[in-house]
Design brief:
Blueprint (H helix, E strand, L loop, with lengths): L3 E2 L6 E4 L8 E5 L5 E2 L1 H6 L4 H4 L7 H5 L9 E4 L20 E2 L11 H4 L20 E2 H30 L2 E9 L14 E4 L9 H12 L4 E3 L7 H6 L6 E9 L4 E2 L4 E2 L3 H15 L16
Parallel strand pairs: 1-4, 3-5, 3-8, 6-7, 8-11, 9-10
Antiparallel strand pairs: 2-5, 9-11, 12-13
């Protein structure tokens, strides 16, 4: 989707297949590129700088999966405006005029880094806003964008869970090819996040890693990204709810400086289709609610 300066319509999209092939949902929460005009006017940095936080084109890499029998979810508003991969109210009191409600989480590590539900900075640490925001503005964004998205995602997950007895959410992201820390080693092509083994059955990240390595990708686990709020919140393997986060190195599919699709773009989209096909073969009995051992 081309960046637009205007209203968000629709703020997110869910494309369900006419017939589900498997209970595997592909979600792209950070590829949104429709920037509300009031947001651009309030920003001290330009659109090019704001876009550094985007998982650019990730929604396009997975959009063809709906035709193969897999539902696809994409968010159209930018994460720098509202980040749905956070708790509902991770808010930095330094950003706002007046007092935040008592139920907000003002002390998380993400808030400390400026990357709360309403981010204070973009990915490379640049401050977004010229002036402090009103608390009402922040709460209105959460009510209008964050909550409807999560209600819709929860309904989709519940639909799959009820129909199949289990569900897998593949949360699709991209990462800068180079980290901020100078001593960070070269990032692999793909990083699989499963919250250190807590968000899904072990066979899923094993299968993703095996598949991606066979396709020629280098693969890491949980470092530097183990999975955010979506992975943690919706993953409950004991109930047959599985989430796994995929972080794709931007250098392999796009020109990071020019923000253009790279020569491997189409092949990587095909490789996502291969991965989806492999995940569809996982026996549902191995993904259903785990049974406690008999005494």
């Amino acid at each position: 989707m081309t960046p637009l300066e205007g209203e968000l319509s629709p703020p997110f999209e869910i494309v369900e297949p006419s017939e589900w092939r498997a209970p595997v949902i592909f979600n792209s929460p950070h590829s949104g590129s429709v920037y509300p005009l009031d947001f651009l006017n309030a920003s001290r940095i330009d659109l090019t700088a704001l876009r550094r936080s985007e998982d650019s084109f990730m929604d396009e890499l997975i959009e063809g999966l709906s035709a193969r029998g897999f539902p696809v979810v994409r968010v159209n508003f930018p994460r720098s405006y509202v980040d749905v991969n956070r708790e509902p109210y991770e808010l930095d009191p330094r950003m706002f005029i007046g007092r935040l409600p008592s139920f907000t989480n003002t002390r998380s590590m993400r808030v400390a880094g400026g990357l709360g539900t309403i981010p204070r900075v973009v990915g490379d640490g640049q401050e977004i806003y010229r002036e402090r925001l009103s608390v009402d503005d922040a709460l209105a964004r959460i009510e209008a964008l964050y909550k409807p998205y999560h209600r819709a995602l929860r309904r989709l997950i519940n639909k799959a869970h009820q129909a199949f007895g289990a569900v897998v959410v593949v949360d699709c992201h991209s990462m800068p090819s180079i980290g901020v820390a100078r001593d960070e080693p070269r990032r692999p092509d793909v990083v699989i996040g499963d919250r250190y083994g807590t968000s899904c059955a072990p066979l899923l990240p094993d299968l993703v890693e095996q598949t991606m390595r066979a396709l020629g990708y280098s693969v890491g686990r949980n470092k530097p990204y183990a999975g955010g709020f979506i992975t943690e919140h919706y993953g409950n393997p004991a109930s047959g709810l599985h989430t796994v986060q995929l972080e794709l190195n931007r250098a392999i599919y796009m020109d990071e400086r020019r923000r253009e699709r790279g020569p491997r773009f189409e092949q990587i989209a095909k490789d996502f289709a291969t991965l989806a096909d492999v995940l569809a073969t996982v026996p549902l009995g191995e993904l259903g609610p785990f049974q406690a051992a008999a005494e």
